[in-house]
Write a structure and sequence with these properties.
81 residues; little secondary structure; Alpha-Beta Plaits; two-stranded antiparallel sheet; 1 helix; 7% strand; elongated
Length: 81
């Protein structure tokens, strides 16, 4: 007997009141729960923009002489390190 594929669910087929608690907006920002805090070493920064390119939340901002980190949105993932 050949196994039957189960139908996939999409957002239209899931009832809206299935989990009302999960849809409550969370007032916390990513910067409130990060475990690591990146720091830019201005003596070593050569402005290559690799940290800016790979940041998953785009919290790295270009300044005239270096790159700075927006800690309000930084998750502390360490990809920029």
């Amino acid at each position: 007997m050949k196994p039957q594929a189960r139908p996939m669910f999409d957002a239209r087929s899931v009832p809206g009141d299935l989990c009302p608690i999960a849809t409550v907006p969370n007032p916390m920002r990513p910067g409130d729960w990060r475990s690591m805090r990146p720091v830019v070493d201005r003596q070593k920064c050569v402005k290559c923009a690799v940290c800016w390119l790979y940041c998953p939340v785009q919290c790295i901002v270009e300044k005239p002489a270096w790159f700075d980190i927006g800690y309000a949105t930084c998750k502390g993932c360490g990809i920029c390190a």
